[in-house]
Amino acid sequence: MIIENVLFAAQEVFHWKNLGLMFVGTTAGLIAGSIPGFTITMAVVLTLPFTFGLSPVEGLSTMIGVFVGGLSGGLMSGMLTGIPGTPSSIATTFDGFPMARNGRPGLALGLGVWSSFFGGIFSAVLLVTLAPSLAKIGLEFGPWDYFALVLFALTITASLSGEILIKGIIAGLLGLLVASVGEDDINGVARFTFGSETLESGFDFLPVLIGLFAFSQLLSDVQDREKARQPLMTGVEAKGIRVEHLAAIRMIIARWFNLVRSSLIGVFTGVLPAAGGSISNILAYDQAKKASKTPKEFGTGIPDGIIAPESANNATAGGALITMMALGIPGDVVTAVMLGALLIHNVQPSPTFITDNPDLAYAIFIAFFLAHFIMIIMQAFCLRAFLLVVRIPMYMLAAVILAYCAIGVFALNNIQDDIWTLFVFGLIGYGMKLLGFPLAPMILGVVLGHVAELNLSRAISLSGTADQFLLDMVSRPWALFFLIVAAFSIIFPWYQKAREAAAWTLGYLPALMVCLAVPLAMMQGWPRTLIAVVLALGAVYLLVQSARRGWSVSTNDAA
Amino acid sequence: MSVSRDTIVAILLLAFCGVLWHASYDIEITNYGTMASAVWPRIIIVAIGAFSALLLLTSLKQRHETVAEQAPSEPFFTRYRNAALIYALFLLFLMTLPTLGMHLGGTLFVFLSLTARGRPAPKRIFLHAAVAIVSIGAMWSIFTFGLRVILPQGEILPI
Fold first, then answer.
1. Residue B47 touches partner A, C-beta closer than 8 Å
2. Distance between CA A359 and CA A235 in Å, rounded?
3. B152, B101 contact by CB (below 8 A)
4. Domain boundaries of chain B, sorted by first residue
5. Torsional sign, CA A384, A399, A414, A424
6. Strand partners of residue B153
7. Distance between CA atoms of A403 and A331, rounded to whole angstroms?
8. Predicted confidence band of residue B25 (pLDDT cuts 50, 70, 90)
């Protein structure tokens, strides 16, 4: 059956039209990713209008191409100019730029490109193997568990995406509120329409998304009049650079442990809702530096400093897709957009997604693999395109893209009201950014609003009363599990700030482990009980270690 | 007495919650379904209100703890002039869309945005016109002929 599905999906993915779209998508991603100020999310968001007229496989393959291309595109500008194209390439510049400046730009680019490739392939293998297994776990979820999972997704997004947690949570709640406008899915009653017929159908997800992300981003990019008039980059010297493929592959294979560790960090970060490549590349770089015998060499242009962040950021994509496909919860904002694309084609992502839509699921697996090969092929060509694009001033690009946003949004439903939605949410997004509110939680709130309400309603119906519902929320293992991680994710920003300074932080991890052991012990099957025991023992071990060190938080004190 | 930006935002959010809470009483109560349609929005409004109150308290506390915030180097209007100009032009584009249509309106929007923000030189104006015509023409063609989308036609130029 699996072979049949793979063959059927491969037939669609390797169709000449789909291949062409993937080449275009990956190239567009590579170029967009290389332009500072253009995030991968924005590139994927802008691809959406083109996918309306395509089949689900074609649309998603194109978006996956943009996603993978964007993750790898950021390294070009980072290495050649020291300015990362995307936040997911920040750590790549630490060693990539010095290596290029030291006369080895071809090797730096080769290491970046091939690390991205291997990291991506590594995560693709995990995607194929883990997503179906995780989906099986997802089938155990009842509406209580799903509601708790959405709460967890929102709290962790809020805690990871902004400097001020309260603002992140408010942004997430505003997203839920936006999703509640119009007729509700359960009773069909209009809400917050204020007498407007337009609002009765609610806000369409995509104009809201494009307004919040793309429109507001473009306005931020042109805010500085003089800067917007300058070419995107000046002084880029890349003529005559030849990417040193073979030397780079040899170096990466010799440092395979760093590659695997960084890729695993990337996948794990991607699996967590909202934690994307911008976090994983820095985490992987940090771990590579800590594990190195020569940490002082980091930052001077060494291969390990390029391999770690680049393999991690591409691996994050696979991790984010695992969560999206297995649970129907977006792993990051890019997968939130993909989830929206699936909804356009009437495909509802859920734990049954892989079993209900095997052709589409396996097509996503194959397209993710394929996109990495296309990325390798197109990188050399895109280096030239990159040199051309960076000569254009931002104000020109912004005006053209804004007009494109309007056309693209109209194409969704053929109604002009959607352009007004784009306009209003562009203003809201810009204002929120200026006021320090992160946009990622709001996007997730808009995407998950309906899922949260639907599951809350189902859960209350099944529980019978509100009291019983609350009791069920804490007595059902998975619901309790997600509520615990949600609670700990709220405390996480304080933990991160106080780490290595306050003694209470020594108890954070053990407390989390003990708390998680409880719902795991409540679950059926011995492996979960075993994990619960291991977690509890691990917590005890950590507490004993801390006590032995006299609850000292400084590593120097301990020494 | 100066008030911090977060304080104003928190107060506005609280007022917003008040308006929505009031509006939630207009939501029809049905005699079917276990959870009434107003329950979920009210839960969200209460949560936003609670966190806005927390933001208000935090901002007031921070204002007492920190030295007065440094005033921005540029006046408000100068700083956001460019963004405001783009919004105004986009609004104009939207309002004239039924008359001008997507093709003509889009071309004018791109041309005016470029000219308003680019360097004011005659040579540039020709460049801006060329960019506007080519880019919108290409996009219009892709959506009209490639994706079979019927874009809004204007009264002046029915394409």
1. yes
2. 47
3. yes
4. 5-65, 76-146
5. positive
6. B101
7. 30
8. very high
Coil, strand or helix at A393: strand
- CA A394: distance to chain centroid? 26
- How near does any CA of chain A get to the CA of B51, in Å? 6
d(CA A284, CA A311): 9
Per-residue confidence (pLDDT) for residue A290, from 0 to 100:
83
Q: What is the DSSP string of A489-541?
A: HHHHHHHHHHTTT-GGGGGHHHHHHHHHHHHHHHSSSHHHHHHHHHHHHHHHH
Sign of CA dihedral A220, A225, A229, A235: negative
Whether the CA torsion A83, A86, A91, A96 is positive or negative: it is: negative
- pLDDT at position A559 is 37
Mean pLDDT of the residues in chain A: 85
Q: Using the predicted structure, report yes or no on whether residue A178 has a pLDDT greater than 90.
A: yes
CB-CB neighbours of A512 under 10 Å:
20
B interface test, pick of A51, A154, A191, A421 with most B CB neighbours within 10 Å: A191
Three-state helix/strand/coil letters over A204-267: CHHHHHHHHHHHHHHHHHCCCHHHHHCECCCCCCCCCCCCCHHHHHHHHHHCHHHHHHHHHHHH
Q: Is the pLDDT of residue A558 over 50?
A: no
Over B27-96, what HEC string results? Answer: CCCCCCCCCCCCHHHHHHHHHHHHHHHHHHHHHHHHHHHCCCCCCCCCCHHHHHHHHHHHHHHHHHHHHH
Q: What ipTM does this complex have?
A: 0.90
For the entire predicted model, the pTM comes to 0.83
Alpha carbons A498 and A508: distance in angstroms, whole number: 11
Judge whether A24 is closer than 8 Å to chain B, CB to CB.
no
Q: Which residue has the higher pLDDT, A240 or A166?
A: A166
Asked whether the beta carbons of A171 and A458 are under 8 A apart, the reply is no
- Rounded alpha-carbon distances, angstroms, from residue A187 to A239, A455, B12, B39: 63, 14, 31, 12
Q: What is the mean pLDDT of residues B92-113?
A: 92
Q: What are phi and psi of A229, to 5 degrees?
A: -85, -15
Alpha-carbon dihedral sign for residues B75, B76, B77, B80: positive
Q: Do A419 and B109 touch (CB under 8 A)?
A: no
- A429 and A212 Cβ atoms separated by less than 8 Å: yes
**Cβ of residue A388 closer than 8 Å to a chain B Cβ:** no
CA–CA gap between residue A134 and residue A267 (Å, rounded): 14
Distance separating alpha carbons of residues A207 and A49, to the nearest angstrom? 10
